[in-house]
């Protein structure tokens, strides 16, 4: 086996983890949820959820991977052989996610390339809202097989960038994140300054930060806040296992996890300032939506063309916005691939670069489905099942495995091994992993099932049932049986001399 790659420094690891955690959801879903739930009210509940669940689970995954020096599959096997399928489920689900996340990345590249079009649309909101649909030719339904050449080209560019960033694992990632983490912050600050200097911007800022006390009683607020924390920190997706496995023995996991989580929240709030000030300045506060696709590709273009009466300035501002989204998307995209490839390479003793090439090639071919005219509909279905069902169940299973069948004090000792300024207390860590996190996730899952079956009669989005079964339930089934299929493969390989690693927690 090749010598395992390691982060060149603590700073590099923190940047890479922040880059993975901070993605498109920070820029478009976080502001939308804040608008939906009374602004400051959502911020308060989000902070609570991050402290009660997000940070402890982040510490848990990073520390376990650092201890075993393995990706998600082998790390979960180290917790207990019967839990290896959970590691496979996390890895398989991440593979499915990157197949369509790469397409969203491609759409952002497409909008960046075509942002010059906004220059000729000053004040024409209707024309601006149609740019995305005109470029992608999407039908929004399970209908249409044509693949626009420009979109396919952007998908190839997206995959080329993803592979370039992770071609040498931790080494190449470490070099890339020094640019891709700071670039979106700089671009967000530029947009925030512009937004805050517009008339009416203060109205938007007030909505973002002033709590609406009456909103605390809305159960959907708590569900959305818990969900946003859970999805935003890149946990349960094999990513933090991979990144944690490249950490040195001197890493301060406790403090690093706190820095990563609060950096993620800070960039979300900065994105909120950009969105609320810009929408306030253009008189579009009532148009902010919690749907990321709609916000980025329909609503925000309308705001762009209404920023000023100067067309070329609006076009430049649009380019800055989509460049910011590119820098946010790329870190998250390549971190998902790295989580998948590291886990598989560790399991089967393969060269990481070979696995990375294979993962990019296979998922790249699959992703072509999502750039067809029906691609947006297929993406919507797959995204709903991978996030609203699979990811939550994986999170519950991880909490049960580590919190209830393993010695949690050993994990906490690993978290606090080099702690100096901050040590995670046992009562907080144990309460979160054993009780709060699984209960919150179970509540989130039950809520999603009530919405799906109780309110919508078992149907999602009005799509044909056969499409929901194919892209939803069957994909979910494959994710959770992947570990058992892998066991059969390993059994066959053992007959040819393959030997599994012994993964043991050594005190």
What's the shape?
globular
Count the DSSP helices.
21
Indicate the CATH architecture: Up-down Bundle
Q: Total strand count, please? A: 0
Largest sheet: none
Low-pLDDT stretches: none
Explain what the structure shows.
There is one protein chain. By secondary structure, the protein is mainly alpha-helical. It has one domain: Amino acid/polyamine transporter I (Up-down Bundle), CATH 1.20.1740. The chain is about 75% helix and about 0% strand. The protein has helices at about 10-20, 25-35, 40-70, 70-80, 85-115, 125-130, 130-135, 150-165, 170-180, 180-195, 200-210, 220-230, 240-245, 255-280, 290-305, 310-350, 350-365, 375-405, 410-415, 425-455, 465-495. Helix 8 runs antiparallel to helix 17 (about 350-365). The longest helix has about 40 residues, at about 310-350. It is globular. The two termini are about 25 Å apart. The mean pLDDT is about 95.
Please summarize what this structure is:
With 507 residues, the chain is mainly α. It has helices at 10-21, 24-36, 40-68, 72-79, 84-113, 125-129, 131-136, 149-166, 170-180, 182-196, 201-209, 219-232, 239-245, 253-281, 292-304, 311-348, 352-367, 375-404, 408-415, 426-455, 465-494.
Please give a handful of descriptors for the protein shown.
507 residues, mainly alpha, Amino acid/polyamine transporter I
Question: Which SSEs are present, and which pair or pack?
Answer:
Elements: H1 10-21, H2 24-36, H3 40-68, H4 72-79, H5 84-113, H6 125-129, H7 131-136, H8 149-166, H9 170-180, H10 182-196, H11 201-209, H12 219-232, H13 239-245, H14 253-281, H15 292-304, H16 311-348, H17 352-367, H18 375-404, H19 408-415, H20 426-455, H21 465-494
Helix pairs in contact: 1-9, 1-13, 1-14, 1-16, 2-12, 2-14, 2-15, 3-12, 3-13, 3-14, 3-19, 3-20, 4-5, 5-8, 5-16, 5-17, 5-18, 5-21, 8-16, 8-17, 10-14, 10-16, 11-14, 12-20, 13-16, 16-17, 18-20, 18-21
